[in-house]
Write a structure and sequence with these properties.
The chain is an alpha/beta fold. 34% of the residues lie in helices and 19% in strands. It has an 8-stranded mixed β-barrel.
């Protein structure tokens, strides 16, 4: 792979994290911050390039731990959402008592992607159960990307589900998609999972998300990823609320 190996990039300080707010649309407040990785070395600028380098060099567990430490340090005063690659479960870092997820003073949400074959999560079930027994929350990420496997919701019993941006972006022009999203939201709530809309980029998308019963959102319309955490223009989020039927996460 072209560019500097990811472990060297970390040592050189060219890997960093940014924060993107997840907002509670009912309370008009930040619910938490998602930690996103960025790089500046040639060939290691995007998250996909960084992860590929880590996998190629059998460094995924170490990279994940470093990113969790960076994320917790970057967001000391709020709930933090951290992405976890399936390869990390095999390396055991996540269940160590000194992992950064167990040192944060606020709630921690681990995001696992819906696009990974569910058989891999079956192999990680013990680790997930141990992590959750210590108070860490589970989020199923990217629901709606590709061919969704709704068994994730039943088998993993997540605290939150994130609807992928590919579904959100077509809502204004796709009436059937709006019906489908409303059904997914009701299903998730019936199973005890609250729903976040990812990739909200317009006021129209935000209103439709609310009409479908979603109470949490993130995306460029709300705030672009940045460090320190970017401010919110709350007047932009003044949309008509849908009735809330579930308890808030973390309460």
């Amino acid at each position: 792979m072209a560019g500097v190996p990811v472990q060297e990039a970390i040592a050189e300080g060219t890997v960093h994290v940014v924060l993107q707010p997840i907002v509670d649309l009912d309370l008009k407040q930040v619910f938490g911050q998602e930690v996103l990785v960025r790089g500046s070395s040639p060939g290691l600028r995007t998250p996909a390039e960084l992860l590929r380098s880590a996998i190629d060099h059998e460094y995924m567990g170490t990279l994940g731990r470093r990113l969790r430490a960076m994320g917790v340090a970057a967001c000391p005063d709020a709930r933090v959402f951290l992405n976890v690659h399936p390869n990390e479960f095999a390396e055991g870092f996540l269940v160590r008592p000194d992992d950064p997820i167990f040192t944060h003073d606020h709630e921690v949400y681990l995001e696992v992607t819906e696009s990974i074959p569910i058989t891999q999560f079956g192999l990680s079930q013990g680790a997930l159960e141990e992590i959750r027994s210590k108070g860490v929350h589970l989020v199923v990420d990217d629901l709606g990307s590709g061919y969704s496997n709704l068994r994730y919701i039943a088998d993993l019993a997540p605290d939150m589900v994130k609807i992928d941006r590919v579904m959100i972006e077509d809502l204004p022009t796709h009436a059937r998609l709006r019906v489908l999203l409303g059904s997914i939201v009701r299903m998730c709530e019936d199973m005890g999972a609250e729903v976040v809309a990812e990739g909200v980029e317009t006021a129209e998308q935000l209103q439709i998300v609310r009409d479908c019963g979603i109470h949490y959102a993130q995306g460029y319309y709300i705030a672009r990823p940045a460090f320190p955490a970017p401010p919110i223009q709350w007047e932009k989020l003044d949309v008509h609320p849908a009735p809330r039927t579930t308890l808030r996460s973390g309460t």
